[in-house]
From TrEMBL:
Protein name, entry field: DUF304 domain-containing protein
Species of provenance: Rhodovulum iodosum
Keywords: Membrane, Transmembrane, Transmembrane helix
Top-level taxon: Bacteria
Transmembrane region(s): 47-66, 78-95
Length: 211
């Protein structure tokens, strides 16, 4: 399992069947597991949209071409069939628009971690959201069975159950754990006249007097 990223500290490596993608944004970053389901989510949504449209056409076709229907003879039979086909079409369209790709958003501006599903158009739907202050711990849970993937989990104040973020190799998840854990630390306020340099705070130079 490899990590694909635009962040310099994570590096960029050649993709393999299982990978973790990290995408930088102007407010933070988004990461997702490169599972087969996630990689094919857009294709599944397109097929669902086509299937939904097909069912809608069949539902309406009963009424525009009644002579072509050799099975449904009465209006009530056509109505029941149309209702069933339209319901199936609606379900497929709902699947295609709901979003099947699972993403984790780390918002550094609002200091929130969000679990989302994203559709093929890039529209995200928030499933769960946690303030950084609510998260008491973040850890990689290794499987006791050889060959099974590890899990990146977090624990929230007031909740006894762990929240699973994603699965993958322990090595790849450890890289993500290190970055997210660093971002979860409280932001230290800096008073006017001081500036932060690395992990230290020193008096800032007045304008025009910097060396």
């Amino acid at each position: 399992m490899t990590v694909l990223s635009t962040h310099p500290s994570l590096g960029v490596t050649r993709a393999r069947p299982m990978h973790v993608c990290v995408c930088e944004t102007n407010w933070g970053y988004v990461f997702r597991s490169g599972t087969t389901f996630n990689d094919r989510a857009a294709l599944i949504e397109r097929v669902s949209a086509i299937a939904g449209l097909t069912f809608f056409v069949l539902a309406v076709g009963h009424w525009f071409f009644p002579d072509a229907d050799v099975v449904m003879h009465t209006p009530m039979e056509r109505l029941a069939s149309s209702f069933g086909l339209a319901s199936a079409g609606l379900a497929f369209v709902w699947i295609s628009e709901r979003g099947l790709r699972h993403d984790i958003q780390v918002d550094l501006e609002r200091r929130r971690l969000r679990l989302t599903t994203t559709n093929r158009r890039g529209k995200a739907r928030i499933v769960r959201s946690f303030a950084f202050a609510e998260i008491t711990s973040l850890f990689v849970k290794r499987s006791a069975e050889p060959g099974r993937p590890a899990r990146l989990c977090l624990r929230v104040a007031g909740n006894r159950w762990d929240v699973e973020l994603m699965r993958g190799s322990a090595a790849a998840l450890a890289v993500l754990h290190g970055r997210i854990a660093g971002d979860l630390r409280p932001v230290m306020p800096v008073a006017d006249g001081w500036e932060k340099v690395g992990h230290k705070i020193r008096p800032s130079e007045p304008d025009g007097e910097a060396a």
